[in-house]
Write a structure and sequence with these properties.
The protein is of the alpha/beta class and 367 residues long. The protein contains nine helices and 22 strands. The protein has two domains: 157 residues, FAD/NAD(P)-binding domain (3-Layer(bba) Sandwich); 151 residues, D-Amino Acid Oxidase, Chain A, domain 2 (2-Layer Sandwich). The strands form four sheets. Strands 1, 2, 9, 10, 11, 12, 13, 21 and 22 form a nine-stranded mixed beta sheet that branches. Bound molecules: flavin-adenine dinucleotide (FAD). The site of flavin-adenine dinucleotide has 42 residues, from helix 1, strand 10, strand 19 and helix 9.
């Protein structure tokens, strides 16, 4: 139960983003973090590939490019310092005949964005290193890796609490009133409802960040982007993984292509694909198996499809403005929406896990 009714800063959402911000801000101000579920990381932050991305794909000068690169460095350092399990296992982006130009463009984009640790790999090298793989060329990213995202969130929560942040689970924000100089939040917890006043409010509600703005009195409607949902289904591979590297095809319009990732136990899974859905639903769509088989067999022709089984699904918050896809993170502060003290983190899909510590660093610096 919440004992205070006024605080300096309220963060809505205990996913990796809200937790990273709570840890960063709690050192210098009073922070209350409100989470509707009974524990942290029940949504986007526990339904992803757990890949530490290395900033290869995003347009130069985008927030994704800058925050992914900075987040990558901060995350490896944090994992080392805090003994959070991780592995810098590296990743291969593979190209087949006719795709070399696209691989070349990706490589250039990555270099221009400031990515490092990149090497081109010949077919001969690939045949020696990954004989199961069908590819004529590849780009190796040394700084890509995997981590235990639950351990990361657990440590962020501990550090925030050590600095006196109040983490309130089963506390759902129903409505927000923007008043001159502060915010009044209507909060529901189990059977009770109460009001909480704060000077700064950070909306890190993941899939609910956009819907929440529609329940925010005084927020300019024209600053609310359209959000659509894109489910990413995963299928796991039974038995031994053919590799301990991450294997990606070339990216597609709305996703990175059906790729192979390994977890820290060495097991492999494939996904996520891109399936547009109307309502949030984490049920894996098993009917997508044939598309998975076809996509994987382009780089692993000898895959036995009987080894694939439905695993889990995540949902991406995809933003649109004027009907057009908006592919970057949308971080709105006063400059963007005109309301002092309010920060909205919208469309925080991949590489949000990688970028979390860098996003938190930015918010602490610039408000
Ligand atoms: C399929 C998929 C694969 C991905 N793979 C990767 C990857 O490999 N690497 C990578 O870097 N990134 C990846 N990402 C992106 C990454 O998972 C997200 O960017 C990150 O987890 C976003 O965290 P979040 O805190 O914004 O959201 P969430 O983790 O969803 O947290 C938001 C929280 O807000 C709470 N909340 C919502 N509304 C309210 C309310 N009204 N009151 C109180 N609480 C509320 C929710 O319960 C939730 O806990 C992937 C994403 C997807 C979907």
């Amino acid at each position: 139960m919440l004992s205070r009714e006024t605080t300096d800063t309220v963060i809505i959402g205990a996913g990796v983003i809200g937790l990273a911000i709570a840890r960063e801000l709690a050192a210098s101000r009073s922070v209350v973090l409100l989470e509707q579920e009974s524990r942290f990381g029940e949504h986007l932050s526990s339904r992803n590939s757990e890949v530490i991305h290395a900033g290869l794909y995003y347009p130069q000068d985008s927030l994704k490019a800058r925050l992914c690169l900075r987040g990558n460095a901060l995350l490896y350092q944090y994992c080392q310092e805090q003994q959070i399990p991780y592995q810098q296992c590296g990743k291969l982006i593979v190209a087949n005949a006719g795709q070399q130009n696209t691989l070349e463009q990706l490589h250039h984009n990555a270099l221009n964005s400031g990515a490092t640790g990149l090497h081109r790999c010949s077919q001969q090298w690939l045949q020696q290193q990954e004989p199961w793989l069908q590819a004529s060329e590849a780009l190796l990213s040394e700084h890509s890796g995997i981590l235990d995202s639950h351990a990361l969130m657990s440590r962020l929560a501990q550090e925030a609490e050590r600095n006196d942040a109040l983490l309130c689970y089963r506390h759902r924000v129903r409505r927000i009133d923007c008043e001159p100089g502060d915010f009044l939040l209507q909060v529901e917890s189990d059977d009770t409802a109460f009001e909480l006043r704060c000077r700064h409010m950070i909306n890190a509600a993941g899939l609910h960040a956009v819907p929440l703005l529609k329940r925010c009195n005084g927020f300019p409607a024209e600053k609310i982007p359209e959000q659509r949902l894109a489910r990413g289904n995963y299928f796991s591979l039974s038995g031994r993984s053919p590799t301990q590297r991450l294997i990606y095809p070339l990216p597609e319009a709305d996703g990175l292509g059906i790729h192979l990732t390994v977890d820290l136990a060495g097991n492999a899974r494939f996904g996520p694909d891109v399936e547009w859905i109307k309502h949030s639903d984490y049920q894996v769509n098993s009917a997508r198996l044939p598309q998975f088989e076809e996509a994987i067999q382009r780089y692993w022709p000898s895959l036995n499809p009987d080894r694939l089984s439905p695993a889990y699904a995540g949902i991406r918050p995809k933003l649109f403005m004027g009907g057009e896809p908006y592919r970057d993170f949308l971080i709105q502060g006063e400059k963007e929406h005109g309301i002092t003290g309010m920060t909205n983190l919208l469309g925080i899909e991949s590489p949000g896990l990688t970028a979390a510590l860098a996003i938190a660093e930015d918010i602490a610096k610039y408000g």
